[in-house]
Recover the amino acids of this structure.
Protein backbone atom coordinates (compact mmCIF):
# COMPACT_ATOMS: atom_id res chain seq x y z
CA UNK A 1 0.00 0.00 0.00
CA UNK A 2 1.17 3.47 -0.81
CA UNK A 3 1.74 6.02 1.89
CA UNK A 4 1.01 9.32 0.25
CA UNK A 5 1.01 12.23 2.62
CA UNK A 6 -0.41 15.68 2.69
CA UNK A 7 2.01 18.37 3.78
CA UNK A 8 1.12 21.84 4.84
CA UNK A 9 3.33 24.75 5.75
CA UNK A 10 1.36 27.49 7.38
CA UNK A 11 1.81 31.26 7.46
CA UNK A 12 -1.27 33.35 8.25
CA UNK A 13 -2.97 31.51 5.41
CA UNK A 14 -2.10 27.97 4.40
CA UNK A 15 0.81 27.15 2.12
CA UNK A 16 -0.15 23.63 1.28
CA UNK A 17 1.56 21.05 -0.87
CA UNK A 18 -0.42 17.88 -1.46
CA UNK A 19 0.95 14.52 -2.40
CA UNK A 20 -1.88 12.08 -1.82
CA UNK A 21 -3.46 9.81 0.77
CA UNK A 22 -3.22 6.69 2.88
CA UNK A 23 -5.71 3.86 3.18
CA UNK A 24 -5.29 2.46 6.69
CA UNK A 25 -6.98 3.29 9.98
CA UNK A 26 -10.36 4.78 10.78
CA UNK A 27 -9.93 7.57 13.32
CA UNK A 28 -10.88 10.51 11.14
CA UNK A 29 -14.51 11.02 10.33
CA UNK A 30 -14.50 14.46 8.76
CA UNK A 31 -15.74 16.06 11.97
CA UNK A 32 -12.52 17.02 13.74
CA UNK A 33 -11.59 13.83 15.64
CA UNK A 34 -8.29 13.72 13.75
CA UNK A 35 -6.52 16.82 15.12
CA UNK A 36 -3.47 16.13 17.28
CA UNK A 37 -1.95 19.03 19.20
CA UNK A 38 -0.06 19.64 22.41
CA UNK A 39 -0.81 23.31 23.05
CA UNK A 40 -3.00 26.25 22.08
CA UNK A 41 -0.52 27.42 19.45
CA UNK A 42 -0.58 24.04 17.70
CA UNK A 43 -4.37 23.95 17.84
CA UNK A 44 -4.53 27.41 16.25
CA UNK A 45 -2.44 26.34 13.27
CA UNK A 46 -4.30 23.08 12.79
CA UNK A 47 -7.68 24.80 12.86
CA UNK A 48 -6.42 27.31 10.28
CA UNK A 49 -5.29 24.51 7.93
CA UNK A 50 -8.25 22.20 8.55
CA UNK A 51 -10.61 23.69 5.92
CA UNK A 52 -8.03 22.95 3.21
CA UNK A 53 -7.73 19.33 4.30
CA UNK A 54 -11.52 18.98 4.49
CA UNK A 55 -11.85 20.36 0.95
CA UNK A 56 -9.26 17.87 -0.35
CA UNK A 57 -10.89 14.96 1.52
CA UNK A 58 -14.24 15.97 -0.02
CA UNK A 59 -12.67 16.21 -3.51
CA UNK A 60 -13.48 19.92 -3.63
CA UNK A 61 -10.21 20.73 -5.36
CA UNK A 62 -11.23 24.14 -6.75
CA UNK A 63 -12.31 25.21 -3.27
CA UNK A 64 -9.01 23.95 -1.85
CA UNK A 65 -7.04 25.86 -4.48
CA UNK A 66 -8.88 29.06 -3.56
CA UNK A 67 -7.61 28.68 0.02
CA UNK A 68 -3.96 28.66 -1.01
CA UNK A 69 -1.96 31.78 -0.28
CA UNK A 70 -0.12 33.62 -3.03
CA UNK A 71 3.12 32.03 -1.80
CA UNK A 72 1.77 28.51 -2.16
CA UNK A 73 1.25 28.85 -5.90
CA UNK A 74 4.52 30.58 -6.81
CA UNK A 75 7.61 28.68 -7.88
CA UNK A 76 6.15 25.22 -7.19
CA UNK A 77 8.26 22.13 -7.83
CA UNK A 78 6.29 19.36 -9.61
CA UNK A 79 7.40 16.88 -6.92
CA UNK A 80 5.15 18.79 -4.50
CA UNK A 81 2.13 17.72 -6.54
CA UNK A 82 3.08 14.42 -8.13
CA UNK A 83 5.95 12.87 -6.15
CA UNK A 84 5.75 9.49 -7.87
CA UNK A 85 5.93 10.92 -11.37
CA UNK A 86 8.19 13.92 -10.93
CA UNK A 87 11.82 14.28 -11.79
CA UNK A 88 13.82 16.02 -9.06
CA UNK A 89 15.46 18.07 -11.82
CA UNK A 90 12.17 19.10 -13.45
CA UNK A 91 11.57 22.79 -14.06
CA UNK A 92 9.61 24.55 -11.34
CA UNK A 93 6.12 25.86 -12.09
CA UNK A 94 6.34 29.66 -11.93
CA UNK A 95 2.64 30.19 -11.13
CA UNK A 96 0.58 27.10 -10.36
CA UNK A 97 -2.84 27.46 -11.96
CA UNK A 98 -6.12 26.17 -10.61
CA UNK A 99 -6.31 23.81 -13.60
CA UNK A 100 -2.85 22.35 -12.87
CA UNK A 101 -3.69 21.88 -9.19
CA UNK A 102 -7.05 20.23 -9.89
CA UNK A 103 -5.52 17.97 -12.55
CA UNK A 104 -2.80 16.88 -10.10
CA UNK A 105 -5.34 16.10 -7.36
CA UNK A 106 -7.52 14.13 -9.79
CA UNK A 107 -4.48 12.19 -10.97
CA UNK A 108 -3.55 11.29 -7.39
CA UNK A 109 -7.13 10.24 -6.71
CA UNK A 110 -7.28 8.09 -9.84
CA UNK A 111 -4.19 6.18 -8.65
CA UNK A 112 -4.93 6.06 -4.93
CA UNK A 113 -8.72 5.76 -4.84
CA UNK A 114 -11.59 8.08 -3.95
CA UNK A 115 -10.64 10.38 -1.06
CA UNK A 116 -12.82 9.62 1.96
CA UNK A 117 -11.85 11.53 5.06
CA UNK A 118 -9.01 12.93 7.10
CA UNK A 119 -7.14 10.29 9.06
CA UNK A 120 -5.00 12.69 11.08
CA UNK A 121 -3.47 16.16 11.16
CA UNK A 122 -0.56 17.13 13.37
CA UNK A 123 2.20 19.70 13.79
CA UNK A 124 5.47 18.55 12.25
CA UNK A 125 7.43 21.59 13.42
CA UNK A 126 7.09 25.16 14.67
CA UNK A 127 10.85 25.61 14.97
CA UNK A 128 11.76 28.81 13.11
CA UNK A 129 15.20 27.46 12.18
CA UNK A 130 13.75 24.30 10.67
CA UNK A 131 11.01 26.25 8.87
CA UNK A 132 13.57 28.67 7.46
CA UNK A 133 15.55 25.74 6.05
CA UNK A 134 18.67 26.49 8.08
CA UNK A 135 20.33 23.39 9.54
CA UNK A 136 22.27 23.83 12.79
CA UNK A 137 23.15 20.14 12.98
CA UNK A 138 23.19 17.32 10.43
CA UNK A 139 20.00 15.83 11.88
CA UNK A 140 18.19 19.09 11.11
CA UNK A 141 18.39 18.32 7.38
CA UNK A 142 15.93 15.46 7.82
CA UNK A 143 13.60 17.65 9.87
CA UNK A 144 13.81 20.35 7.19
CA UNK A 145 12.98 17.84 4.48
CA UNK A 146 9.84 16.70 6.31
CA UNK A 147 8.83 20.22 7.35
CA UNK A 148 9.27 22.22 4.14
CA UNK A 149 10.19 19.72 1.42
CA UNK A 150 10.60 21.40 -1.95
CA UNK A 151 9.09 24.70 -0.85
CA UNK A 152 10.41 27.64 -2.81
CA UNK A 153 13.18 29.66 -1.21
CA UNK A 154 11.17 32.72 -2.27
CA UNK A 155 8.68 32.11 0.58
CA UNK A 156 9.84 34.55 3.28
CA UNK A 157 11.15 32.72 6.35
CA UNK A 158 9.48 35.19 8.70
CA UNK A 159 5.95 34.17 7.60
CA UNK A 160 6.51 30.44 8.07
CA UNK A 161 4.73 29.55 11.31
CA UNK A 162 4.14 25.80 11.32
CA UNK A 163 4.65 22.70 9.23
CA UNK A 164 1.56 20.51 9.34
CA UNK A 165 1.33 16.92 8.23
CA UNK A 166 -1.82 15.01 7.61
CA UNK A 167 -3.14 11.83 6.11
CA UNK A 168 -6.28 11.40 4.03
CA UNK A 169 -7.93 7.99 3.80
CA UNK A 170 -8.93 6.65 0.40
CA UNK A 171 -11.46 4.07 -0.66
CA UNK A 172 -9.75 1.04 -2.16
CA UNK A 173 -10.02 0.78 -5.91
CA UNK A 174 -11.41 -2.52 -7.20
CA UNK A 175 -8.06 -3.49 -8.72
CA UNK A 176 -6.35 -2.87 -5.35
CA UNK A 177 -8.83 -5.16 -3.59
CA UNK A 178 -8.27 -7.88 -6.19
CA UNK A 179 -4.49 -7.57 -5.82
CA UNK A 180 -4.68 -7.73 -2.02
CA UNK A 181 -6.92 -10.79 -2.22
CA UNK A 182 -4.57 -12.46 -4.69
CA UNK A 183 -1.55 -11.66 -2.50
CA UNK A 184 -3.35 -13.11 0.54
CA UNK A 185 -4.68 -16.05 -1.49
CA UNK A 186 -8.24 -15.20 -0.49
CA UNK A 187 -11.16 -15.88 -2.83
CA UNK A 188 -14.21 -13.63 -3.18
CA UNK A 189 -16.29 -16.31 -1.46
CA UNK A 190 -13.86 -16.44 1.48
CA UNK A 191 -13.94 -12.67 1.82
CA UNK A 192 -17.75 -12.55 1.74
CA UNK A 193 -17.95 -15.34 4.30
CA UNK A 194 -15.38 -13.70 6.59
CA UNK A 195 -16.46 -10.06 6.26
CA UNK A 196 -20.09 -10.47 5.22
Amino acid sequence: MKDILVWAVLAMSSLVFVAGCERSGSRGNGTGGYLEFEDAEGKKYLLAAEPFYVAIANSEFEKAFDMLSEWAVKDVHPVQLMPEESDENAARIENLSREQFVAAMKSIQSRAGQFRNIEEMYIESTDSGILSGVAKEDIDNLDIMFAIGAMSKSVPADIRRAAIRGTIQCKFREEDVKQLMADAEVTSEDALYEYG
